[in-house]
Structure formats: structure tokens, C-alpha cells
Amino acid sequence: MNLEELKQIAASTRDEQAKFDHEINICMGTGCLSQHSDTIKDALTKAVAASGKNAFVRRTGCMGLCAAGPLLLLTNKGSEHEIVYDHVGPEHAEKIAAALGGAPVAELQCDLREHFESQVHVVLENSGHIDPEKIEDYIARDGYEGLVTAVTEMTPSEVIEQIMKSGLRGRGGGGYPTGLKWSTVAKAVGDPKYVVCNGDEGDPGAFMDRSVLESDPQRVLEGMALAAYAVGASRGFIYVRAEYPLAVSRLTAAIRDARRKGLLGNNICNSDFSFDVEIRLGAGAFVCGEETALIASIEGRRGTPKPRPPYPAVSGIWGKPTLINNVETFANVPPILRKGGEWFSGIGIGKSKGTKVFAITGKIANTGLVEVPMGIPLRQIIEGIGGGVPDGHTFKAVQTGGPSGGCIPAHLLDLNVSYESLIEVGSMMGSGGMIVMDDTSCMVNVAKFFIEFCMTESCGKCIPCRAGTAQLYTLLTRICEGEGTMDDLDLLVDLSATIKETSLCGLGQTAPNPVLSTLRYFRNEYIEHIEHKHCSAGVCAMSKAVEVTA
Amino acid sequence: MSPAPAVDIKTLTIDGKEVSARAGQTILEVARENSIAIPTLCHLDGLSDVGACRLCMVEIAGTPKLFPACVATVEEGQVVTTSSDRLKKHRRTILELLFAERNHVCSVCVANGHCELQTLGQEQGLTHIRLPYRNPKLEIDGSHERFTLDQNRCILCTRCVRVCAEVEGAHIWDVMGRGIDSMVITDLHQPWGESACTRCGKCVQVCPTGALFDKSKVGSPHPKYPEFLPALQMMREQQ
Known about the structure:
The structure holds 2 protein chains of 2 kinds.
Chain A: H1 3-18, E1 22-27, H2 30-33, H3 37-51, E2 55-60, E3 72-76, E4 82-85, H4 93-99, H5 113-117, H6 135-140, H7 145-153, H8 156-166, H9 178-187, E5 194-199, H10 208-215, H11 217-231, E6 235-241, H12 245-260, E7 276-282, H13 291-298, E8 322-326, H14 327-339, H15 341-345, E9 348-349, E10 352-353, E11 355-362, E12 368-373, H16 378-385, E13 395-400, E14 406-409, H17 419-424, E15 433-438, H18 443-457, H19 463-480, H20 486-502, H21 506-510, H22 513-521, H23 523-531
Parallel strand pairs in A: 1-2, 5-6, 5-8, 6-7, 11-15
Antiparallel strand pairs in A: 1-3, 3-4, 9-10, 11-12, 13-14, 13-15
Helix pairs in contact in A: 3-4, 7-11, 7-14, 8-9, 8-11, 10-12, 11-14, 18-19, 18-22, 19-20
Chain B: E1 9-14, E2 17-22, H1 27-33, E3 57-60, E4 66-68, E5 79-81, H2 85-101, H3 116-123, E6 140-141, E7 147-150, H4 159-168, E8 173-176, E9 183-186, H5 202-206, E10 212-214, H6 228-238
């Protein structure tokens, strides 16, 4: 494979697609598939054939607006305009086929212009436009151009330089500069070196990585191959949760296709660069998203973290230099190589460059996946793109960063989202889950939920996390049941400090964040539970509260 | 004759005392060489370090983070503090967590008076436990002819796991479950007496509490002798 051959594949695929007057893209991500979007595709294929229209029906990955699924994206030849239909069912197939070329079906048309138009798609640029199991579709949209150019025309250090220039930072939570990480692994001594893609997305309410893997698996493979070329690695692992069967099957197909095209395997582009990827399935442990635990798991051992240093960049899988990046981080790499680091650093704010994919869930109208430039006001994400809190309720807080993050109350909604600004208000970027809460959510109960998650997901190796989270959970349960005392609040704070400062890995070090941030912004709710034995959200039953008569 | 390999020497300050160390030594090693005490539980001379008990956390000037002295290596010019109000507070909280986690009832424990957890509690001035006791219902495995495993006293330091795997080479011990439900087990959770145990008793000698004990010592003082490990290691190296 060389650049010319690649461009030929792209051109012939585009020619093939240009034969059709209309393209009908049906979302077949997990969300829409759970509403039987596969039957819609079958019905549409039949209806289109029956109607005699020259249209092409394609399955695609997630289009983002999961709340309104199943979704359908329609494009007409010679027109930039895209039509989105929501809540589509197989019964609409004939109507949709009949309307092709004329006025769109009004009753199905999705009118959420603000939702789509304020987003900037880099990672999700192909979502809704390509068949995730067709490598040609990816190549037709400039896929693998970055890799082939890099391998045939650039040195590894030039690749790293582009990543450095782009200002890309890890999208998995910590926000470590990606270019710096790559250059560290490139300088590390050891053979072989490994590249690992961390797809062990486990935060409650987060599904960014799943969607990327399901919608555009080739993009992740290209990102990994570019990383391998840059750091001098020859083997790669994708660590995916076994709970993501669709992502796994699409990845498996993607790896097979990339091998057939000579974009993975030995002597890629007739160079001396060889790289191949294996999938490893996680067995359902949140802690395996922590890099040293992930390494242990890949090696076939119990997934428990190890003290760092030594960092995986120096001593990772089987003691060899290992580069670990998140799915979304790798997905950002191909466009950076294609368009240059400067292009990427032009998006974003301050030290947070590029875009971020968020999974918005909870008490929000437009549940789903959005990609926005860094620096966008939180209010625009929640009220604009997200459509605000439904059913006449009022917004109370949004939890970012999953169980490791914190909640952000209403008065901070004008915050510009970046790694730094979120940490300043006591939360964090995390992997990109956003859980919206309204006046029917009790913040003590929310803290209890996240602590329970951390408690059950603690590996049990170090005592502050193992027993500390269990103690926090006991104390919060006591408060939720109306048995709490004001002394318990001090104990919560003391215990949180010890867990935060002395735990071995990131899971423990961040586990108390939901408690600390709810205590910081919603202390009144704790006091209400303790002193008045009352939960104004009506969530806590206060079953054990004893009524005090004056 | 080949020249002796160059040894990289670092100098640093621990608790105001200027000390020297070989590169690659841990802060704990250097502190103990210089008679500076740092409390530890999971660390044991002669075993690999896992950094699990978090009692040896120390402060290093210039960063707000705390570092486990058992695995953090020395750096030139480092200024280490091994005892401060903040560290003491954390150590006491960690000990409280340990005491409240399972059923540590010293008065009826076979290791009473010879228990590292008990000693640490006294040394760190632990007078009471603020946290609710969890009082879990846990099993005692008495199936082994010589030894007993009492989960009620286990603090999951994993010394038994490491000594069995690293020194005895049998690896019958490991950890099962996760989080607060973690448990040391023999083989694949078979009774100890039916496991592939070699009956060497090393795990009992290194156990810091009364979780592993010799049946013949019940009712009499049960001191343990983990000092055999460095000696054994030295003898093996000389062979």
C-alpha cells in the first residue's frame, strides 16, 4: 500500500457512492440497535427497491442524539444539506422512500438545529456517514492518509512533533500531554515496545469510547498504528470491556480488514515498520482502567494497581516500555496527522486544545453523545445542546468525571469547560461522562451512589480505598436513613482526606470527590438530613429517623 | 582485574538529618539504616514491596503529594519528612480503618502482645476508634493439621502470599474477591488442609497479626520470627 493506491481506493469508493441520488444512513449503534434499527434498515432496503428510487441504505455508527433514536440521516446528491429523522420505525419505511427527492417527511424530521449546529466534530467526524465494518468507507473519507503519509514520508520524531504541536492531552481522565507521553516511550529503552488502547470505559453514564469503537473502529486502529510508528512499537493491545459486544465484533472486523489491506501487520507500506493489534477483553472491573492494573490484566494476572514509578512508559507490559492512551485520544490522532498540529491547536482554549466528546445522561432532554470544542460554556452544553432539564423541573447540578469527579452546581454553569477549570471547581474532566441532576435528585443520595460504586469497584489492595470507601458508604447510609449526626460530617471530611492523600491509585485518590464536592456545594442538604430528618428531594426514606418531640 | 563498578551515591535529608544512599535504595531502607523509624505493615525485609498498607507514607519537600517510603527511591537533594501532624493523622486514620474493618479483639487473640498491628496502634497513640466497627461474619479455617487461618484478624498485607510465592516457591496463597470482600485464600479457595501447602510455616512466621497461627501455640504466647527471611536470603545468596 502506498499513498497512490490508498487514494485510488478512496476515489473508486466515492465514485461508487456517487452513483446514488440519495444516501440513507441508519444508526446502528447500541442505543438505536436496542430499538431494532436493524429491522428498519431491512424495511427501508425493501421499500427503496420497491419505489424504484436510486438510493443507497447504509448502517452507520452512533449519531449522538440517542434520546430520539432510532435516527436516520439523509443526504441528497449535489446538496450539502442533511436531513435527520428521529423516532423512526419500520412502519415509516415506505413513507421515507416515497419522499426521497421531494419534501422530507415532516412528522419525522428532527428540528433540533441547535443540538447539531453548535457541535464541532473531530473524533465523531465520520459517525453517521460511514459503515463501521467497511474499511473502504473510512478510506473514502481520508482515512489512513495520515498513517500512509507518516510511514512513507515522515520520521517518527516528526510524527511526535505534530502531536506536541497539537497540544493534544489524554482524554481518559488525567489530561497528560500526549506528545510528552509519546516522546517518553520513544526514548525508553527496551524491545519490543507496546501500544495499548484503553477501552475499559467504566464510569456510570459514560459511553464515549463505546460509541467511537462502534462507529469508527478504523480511526482508533490508525491512531494506534501512528503511535506505534512514532514510539517504535511493534505490538498493540486494545483492552475493551466484555460488556461491549458490538464494539468488540466491529473491532474484530476492523482489524481483519486492516490486515487484508496491509495497513496492519508486517512491513506496512513496504517499509520496515510492522505493527499488529490484539483485542483483550476486560472481565468487568472498573479498576482495570487504571494503567498499571490494566497492564496486569493484559498479562493475565489479577487486575490490581502497582505503585508508580516505574511508569508504564519505562516498564509496562512484561517490563517493556508501553504507551497507554485512551480510545478518544487515539481517535484524535489521524486528523492531527492529516491536517497538522497547528490546525488542532487552533480549536480549544488555553492549555486544553481540540474537542471533547461528552456523554450526557440523567435529567436532560437530549440524552446522548456530543462533541464540543474545549472552552465552551457548560451552560451551552446543558441548556443548548442538551436541551435543558425536561418536564418543568429545575436544574440542580451536573456530575462530570464520573465517580472520580464532582458535581457542579447551577451558579457555576457559565464555566468554560477545560481540564483546569473543572479541577478548580472541585470536579474533573474525567473521561467525559456528564450526569445531569434536577430538583428530584438528593445530593446526599448521589454521593452515596458514587461511593457505593467506588466501594464495590475497589480492588482491595490498599487499606484507605478498601475500607475507607466502605466506611464512607456506611456514614452516608446512616445520614440517608436519618440516623446521621453532625459529627459524622467531620468524620466524612477527615476520612476523605486520608483516602485522597494515601490511596495507591487514581481510583482511591479520587473516590471521595463526590462526597467532598456535594459537601462543598450542598452542605445544606446534609444538614437538612441530619438535623431535620428531612429529604426535600423526597428520595431518602428516612426509615430509621426518630421523631423528636419538643 | 576489572575495576569495581561505579556506585552512584545520593545525598539527601531525612527529618533534618543529612544521609547518604546508593542510587536505587528506597527511602525506607535509608531511613532505617540511619535509625529513623517509619511505621510499616505490609513491608517485610526479604519480600518484594507492594505499597499496600500506606503507613509508610512520607512527605517530600516541593510536592504536596505523599510517597510510600517502601517503594519510593532516593533522589539527590531530596528533603524527606517522615513524621508530621498530617502524616500522624493519616497513619492513625489508617490504623482505625484496619481495626474497624474486621474483628480485632486483642484480649482473645492468640497474637495478643506479639501483634504488629497492636504495637503500631500503641506507638501511634491510637486511643479510640471513631469509625463504626464493621463486625463482619468471617470464617476460620482450621483444616490444616498444624496451622489455622482466622480471617477475622487478617489485614490483607499479603505477606503470606508473597513469602509463599517468592521464598517457598509454592504459591498456595492468593487473594480472592475485591474491595472490602477481598480475602486471602489457599489454592483456588480449597481448605488449607487440602491445599498444596508444603507445611513450611513461613506464612505463619511473617503474618503480622493473629490471622495465621500455629495451633500448638494457642493459650501460650505466640511470638513470630520474621527475621528468618533476610538470614535465609543471605544464605541462599552465598550458595
